[in-house]
Amino acid sequence: MEKEVKELSDLITSELKKLNESNVALKAAIDVKAGSDKIEPLIEKAEKAEKDYNALALKLDQMQLDLKDQKMGGKKISMFDGMKSKMTDKAFIEEVKKGRSIEFELKASTMDEAVELSNSALATAVIVPFREAVIGKAPDRRILMLDAIQRANISSNRVSWVERSARTEGGAAVAEQAQYGQSDLTYIQRTAPVEKIGTFLKVTNEALEDWDQLLSEISNELIPQLERYLEAQIYKGTGVSPQLTGIAKAGIAAAYTTTGLNGQIITPNHMDAIRAAVMQLALANFYPTHVFINPVDGAMMDLPKNVDGIYLLPPFVGLDRRVIAGVRVVESNLVAADDFLCGDFTKDTLFTQRGIVLKIWDQDSTDPEYDLKTITASLRSVNRIKVPDYNAFVYDTFSAVIGKIKNA
Hints:
single chain; hypothetical protein PF0899 fold; 2 domains; five-stranded mixed β-sheet; four-stranded mixed β-sheet; 11 helices; extended
């Protein structure tokens, strides 16, 4: 039977690998927002893999218990048999169903006196626990801003572009034989360097032997960690090397400065503040695509009511309150409460020189002495926002904008 247990254990390892692969494929499909026609088959595949894994694990539990019984020399442990017999008795079950307290006695004399609990196989004759495939851990911030910006690849260590820095428009109506007005255009070339983001972790060589589990954790932990940091850099990177240039960096995204609505709005709320920001962008000839807010502010947008307790819905807001004046509202813990970032996110492009690369090293520091390996993960990217597009973004606080447009 030991051979059969070994073969079944190997089969369970194979099924666990299939389950992990199914979960990784499903997560990838959800992250890229694939259609239901692609996600549903992956869900079915993952559920089948989990069902098969659970069935095999249950079978292994029973085989291990049978094997332990064999190793005990076939001795009858009548105390346990007596407990099983009592608790499966129909009369006993009916009494339990009625909620009554039940007492019964198992005499020690029914146990084989030659069997000692302290040093015999009986000490380990317990039910083998079932191990769930998924590791319990606190959830991480969802990565959302990377989906809003533009993405591109480059093969250099810097990106360069040309901007029109100035223009004089001389177009005008001209009388016969009069001189045309002169128009002037000025251009400037700019560059931005590729920067590197990376991290590492130490693992034992034993962990590497359990490669399926380790690979799953790398996929679920290490790679998303880099993506979250990359998103944070796109949001608020200082632009001072080695940091990327973020949209909300001082001097890029503009504060709310338009005065057309100042003091004009009665009891303004969060939705009015976003509408005012959209107005500022429209006046600058930009057409915003997204506004990123904190979940706290999202809740405050959902809950306004009149004195009769009826929810209020402005005419420029979608029924789910997630589209305001044509702009998609995105809740993210990346944004602090009361802050908001509204803009045309197509004006920000993340150029990737090298995607996430994983490497395993065995000669780092004292790794050989402690039988360790070092796993590094890194990427190289540059976030480019052209100077003429700085006004494509408004970064401010709800309280500040509401204070400006409120009719005192």
